[in-house]
Structure formats: C-alpha cells, structure tokens
Amino acid sequence: MSLNQLIENCKNNDTKAQSELYKLFSSKLFSVCLKYSRNYAEAEDNLQDAFITIFKKINQYKNKGSFEGWLKRVTINTVLQQYRNEKVFDIINENTVDDVELEVDEDTLSIDYLLRIIQELPDRYRLVFNLYVLDGYSHKDIAAMLEINIGTSKSNLARARQILKQTIQDYKTTQSLQSL
C-alpha cells in the first residue's frame, strides 16, 4: 500500500492503517519526543499523545509538502503544548545573557551522554535549545511556538549553552582526574 493510500485510510479512521502508520513512523517520532522530554518514560507518553493528535488532525494534511515533516511538526507542537500547560515559561523577566559558544568534542563525549545532559536542562532551556540548535527554528518562530518573547528565547538559549558548557567542562575535568 502506498503512503498516500495509507494516509487516506487513516483519514477514514481505519484502525489497521493507523497501526501501520504508527509502525512506519513511531521510531522517528520517538526520537523527536526524546529530544523534548525530560526522560525516556515521558518521551513514551509524549509519543502516544502525539499519535492521538496526529490521528485527530490527519484530515488537516492536504498532501502538500512532506508528510514526515507534518508529522514532526504535530509531534513537536503536542509536546510543547504540555509545557505551555505546565506554565514552564512563566518567568518573563530574564536578564540578557551573553551568547556562549558551545564546542563539543565528539571523541570524548558520547551521543548518549550529550542527550542525557540536554534532557537534564530545565524545561524552558531544553526546549529552546532543541528548537534552535537541533531543529533550526528561528527565535521569532520559537517565541510564537512557546508563547514567549524573542528576548526570552535568546536568553534561554544562552543559559542552556552556559549550563551545557559548564557540565561538559566538569565532566572532562572528572575524566582527566580519573585517568591520573
């Protein structure tokens, strides 16, 4: 069955087609959820919520543009809605922080370690960091998505980079002390 036929069947609430769509895209969308979630279990919950939303809104997909891109946007928006509901962005008076360059040495840091320290960031910093750095959204887009102002987006990104830089420096110091 073609992807277009699968989508049409999902629009008609065909549970077999929905199951097939889930099997086809769940691993890719789970990695999106994992980026924006605090931990693995929350990512699993977010994936389920995302698919519920996808199946509710699949009639809005008009076969224009990438279906996978549409799925990713719906998934990100579903996860972000949870954080908007939790009011993680209530702190509005962020002091502007100078932007920090974050250099990652892939030889000494594993992807699992990087993902873990990103997940450990406070919600508002993690979400902005992921949207800006990993998914390429602009501060204007992030501000609209998270219902914050552009300055808060920039400040949260800078703070996320600061925290990650310090965490990585501490890790490297620990590693070099252990190798003595």
Automatic annotation (TrEMBL):
Boundaries of each RNA polymerase sigma factor 70 region 4 type domain copy?
Answer: 112-162
- Tell me the Gene Ontology biological-process terms attached to this UniProt entry: DNA-templated transcription initiation
- The RNA polymerase sigma-70 region domain is annotated at 21-87
- Matching InterPro entries, A to Z? RNA_pol_sigma-70-like, RNA_pol_sigma-70_dom, RNA_pol_sigma70_r2, RNA_pol_sigma70_r4_t2, RNA_pol_sigma_r2, RNA_pol_sigma_r3/r4-like, WH-like_DNA-bd_sf
Keyword Transcription tagged:
yes
A molecular function annotated in GO for this UniProt entry is: sigma factor activity
Q: Which UniProt keywords apply?
A: Sigma factor, Transcription, Transcription regulation
- SUPFAM superfamilies documented for this protein: Sigma2 domain of RNA polymerase sigma factors, Sigma3 and sigma4 domains of RNA polymerase sigma factors
Is Transcription regulation found in the keyword set? yes
The Swiss-Prot or TrEMBL record describes its family as follows: Belongs to the sigma-70 factor family. ECF subfamily.
What name appears for this protein in its UniProt entry?
Answer: RNA polymerase sigma factor
What species does this protein belong to?
Mariniflexile litorale
Q: What is the lineage of its organism?
A: Bacteria, Pseudomonadati, Bacteroidota, Flavobacteriia, Flavobacteriales
